[in-house]
Amino acid sequence: MTGAALAPLNIDVTTSMVAVVTALAVLVFGLATLAKPSRATVAWGVAYAIGIFGAYLWLGGYQLDDPVMRAGASATLFSFEPLVWWGLRAFARRRPISWPVIAFMVLGPVLLLTTAGSPIYQIAFRVLFLVASIFAALVVYELIRLRNVPRDITMPLLLASAMFVLLAVTAAVSAVTVRGLTAEQQMGILRGTNSTGAIVLSACAAFTLILLVRTDADAASRAHDDAERLRRRLARAHARGEEDWSVLAVHLDDPVDLRDALTIGTFAELIARHRAGIEKSLPASADIHVVDDTTTVIVINAGDEAVAHHIRDMLSRISSVDDEAAAGPRLSASVGWAPASALGFDYDVLLAAAGLAALDARARGGDRWARADRPAPASPANLEA
């Protein structure tokens, strides 16, 4: 063999960032954006597309030692958090606020590109870093507000975004307090931190966002199938002239406080106790549909006295404390009861009425039930509380 000696392959944090961001973008595109297209997943797909562009631009600027390319790359990478925040609001069915995201994505590159190579670039970079951290803080806020989502899914992005805020504040404070380092040395530290942070943030975001999309899609599909089954069951009962049918909505009391106060494992055990209390109090013929961890819908064929007995037994079982759970929190629930004899056999009408009655029972202190004898003025969204 002949041959000249091959130069060793140099893989540093910059080339690693390009590889990792590209791989994560492919995962997000395939498992979220293309698999479940929506405003949220499209926004997240755009965030990763911009991330790829910024990563390659950063690599080019690093290899060519071009401050303008590095400035453009930094501004591009900072646009990731605003798009993730916009997508989270859309995912949670809250009105996305576009103007701050657009303003940041336009003015950020202008700020860094016009100051690249000048003495004030370091100040501009820190200012943009600090502004981007506001969006990171908003991401943390939106993740905390997400309902019926396990904390182990949101935790990676939540912690990474919180760390982003901490680093931005530290960078701003260090500009005033740190002495003994030249401006170029400080920028070198910031660039290294920025590259490493981009890898960590994009990885944590991909994990959280993909699981959010896949979990939400699976839950929606199961909920649709369960609702159709219950509609058909009530329709058959109505066709046979049966009258003694009811829909019950069972809401766990104080779910937000319980979720925030307990660890993931303890909360899961609590939910298991809650469901066990429901199942043990009902006859085998009752159809139980678990909407989420804190809400259950039941279709039951029984007379009024029997239904009232089952509800009282259910509340007693849920609130009772056994020996194994003696040290845990005391549970309670609110139950809404919508009888078909009074409201008809339209499942959606019964569901809305039962949900509103459950909210009324909760408003009166919880650990009780309320009966609906007329249709609710709202939609089945009453069950979301």
Automatic annotation (TrEMBL):
This protein's UniProt keywords: Membrane, Transmembrane, Transmembrane helix
Transmembrane segments: 16-35, 42-59, 97-117, 123-144, 156-176, 196-213
Domain of life: Bacteria
Gene3D superfamilies from the UniProt entry: 3.30.70.270
InterPro entries named among the record's database cross-references: Rev_trsase/Diguanyl_cyclase
Keyword Transmembrane helix on entry: yes
Keyword hit for Glycoprotein: no
Protein name: GGDEF domain-containing protein
